[in-house]
Amino acid sequence: MRDKYFYEVMFDDTSIDVSKEVGLVWSIANSLRGAYTSDKYKDVIIPMVIIRRFECALEATKDAVVAKHKQNPNLPAALLCQVSKYPFYNTSEFTLKRLLDDSDSIASNLKSYIEGFSANIQLILEKLLKFSTQIDKMDKSNRLYSVVKKFSDLDLYPAHVDSMKMGYIFEDIIRRFSENAEAGDHYTPREVIRLMVNVLLAEGCNDLLTDEGKIATVLDIKTPRLIQFNYFSADFAA
Hints:
Elements: H1 2-10, H2 19-30, H3 42-71, H4 77-84, H5 96-99, H6 106-115, H7 119-128, H8 131-140, H9 144-152, H10 163-178, H11 190-200, E1 214-220, E2 225-231
């Protein structure tokens, strides 16, 4: 009974409905039509989803972080994280909503807002995603204000969208953007993950659920490479 319950829980991905949130994000992506080709929507949408999620998470402690930073601009990042209650923070007084108050300077102000994030978030937005380039492009094509406005109304607050649901939202967005991607650029689809786990939990592999620290491998023939899974026993009540 225990193993059956474990198996059913592992594959229960039907209880989290993200269609509303993903639909709203996709409608924002469609507003980029003309300035961007559909395969480039992700260059804007993915960074903006990240920004909005972090903004929603930080809202409750933002004023306290800004006040601490004003008192001492050289305050260590670890202390600001203690105030924000997250492993990241933002010291800018801007929010996406406040950026709308000055439409003429929205591009420069958005860059300033991003610069207010802690270094680990700036690494994602600037070094990896190079979002400043997209800010300039949207500004020149008169898309920036509308995109910021729509994202400022998107509800990604942790109280309403927990970490599990946010993961599903992000996965679905990436999946849609991957539909037209070139071979090798795709993310690993949920059905492929399900297949790999099914292989691992095939007949004769019950010890994966019971043996502490059990290690199993799956060969990715296409690459090829070994994908390694570490399992730790857990008590699931029937």
